[in-house]
Hints:
The protein is an alpha/beta fold. The protein has helices spanning about 50-70, 130-140, 165-170, 195-200, 215-220, 275-285, 290-295, 300-310, 345-375, 390-400, 410-425, 430-440, 450-480, and strands spanning about 5-10, 15-20, 25-35, 80-85, 90-95, 125-130, 145, 155, 160, 180-185, 190, 205-210, 230-235, 240-245, 255-260, 265-270, 320, 335-340, 380-385, 405, 440-445.
Amino acid sequence: MSDQYLMSVDVGTQSAKVIIFDLKGNIICQGVKKLRNIQVPAPLLAIHPDDDIWDSLQIAFTRVMAEFNALKLDVNAIKAIGLCIIRCCRTVVKANGELAYPVIGWMDKRLNKPYQYSDEFKDVRYVSTSSGYITHRLTGEFKDTCANYIGWWPMDDQTLGWSIDPKRWQDCNLTRDMVMDVVKPGEILGYLTDELTQRYGLPKKLPVIATAHDKAVEALGAGSLDNGTILISLGTYIAALTQGKEYVTNSVNFWPFQASIPHRYIYECWGVRLGMWTISWFRDQFGQAAIAEAEDKNIQVEELLSREAENVPAGSEGLFTIHDWAAPPHAEFRKGAMIGFDSRHTRAHMFRSLLEGIAFTLKNHVDKMNQELNIPTRELVVSGGGANSDLFMQILSDIFGVPAKRNVMRGSAAVGCAINAGMAIGVFDSYEQAIEQMVNVQNIFTPNPVNHDFYNQLNSQVYQYGQSHLDPLLKNLSSLVD
């Protein structure tokens, strides 16, 4: 059992990763390739340039196998590949499986509406997701997971298959012959093509396994999310979600999505668009002096900024941030704001305020979701690169008032991929056993009661009113500059 490995393909907005795990959740080796920046060919459009997702993934495969071979391990011990690609994207694919147009990213306004043919699309045969397109590249099959169809798709989330309601198809401006066949998470999509098997030196007939949309796969890889456990997924889009066994209809404060375990569901409230990107933006735009200082101290600039911000009191001495750097579809006039500057404030205050603003936003959305579900928030599980920050982990725990834990493997989507892959080939008896074996907790942060009490007052008396007071001004501003 110990000499079997599972491969995870995990492509997010910023990078393509291929990781090989053992059955205890330990990373054997990994290959990573940063994606190119999203292109904006016109206002509120967003595409992945050229064929960047596939091009980057091929490089990641080359890198992981170079590491694996350098370890002189048995390639035949790699038993399956779990596949997880960015959610909420749209692809238009030719009959030969090539892109008819670059992958349309999740921030593109076209995804807020049903599919519409454009003259820019050449020789379209299939309309699909990012995972459907990459499945074909890996296997030659025109198949996809049923659990990555969010938005304008005629997917039946209760039967886990295409809808049989003609009106759903009509509303989505699609017909059955325009979409790919679908399988459930933990089922086989196909087998790695002979050409890729030979190129990367992988075993023949290596199965490629369906997962779900990336946040659901993160939830699986983060561990059990039942009974009030909330996953905070720190990425370009920061999501907050929990998991349940019932498909909830007519929800007001959250969306029910398919989970990465068939016939279970993710309940996800509104998140923070460009969340962790905002932290990188601050570093790149205002951190030149900090970068030089960090280099002198031989540490990462994020660590330096965190150390400085740890010395700033909770609440950043009156400076607070509203995170609308990317406006939501229902309020395109909104913009980000920092409010409350005075002569006390430094870059450390600004950095801490950015983190606190994310946590306040998530707390307010999660509270509404859990009130509707009648489930109190019991604990947080935090995934993504931002979980490396002790400061951010403590801020999240203090603002929510519950323990916040992080796992050894921060990128839990990769672990979720491996779990789905292992279930498909029978190396785990159950999802519960797989989670117990693969998910390893590293740290638990507990709330500071004094800070929690102060954050509650700041939130209820100030932060929760910020957006409503700014909206009229930002509407006027948008009409002048946008």
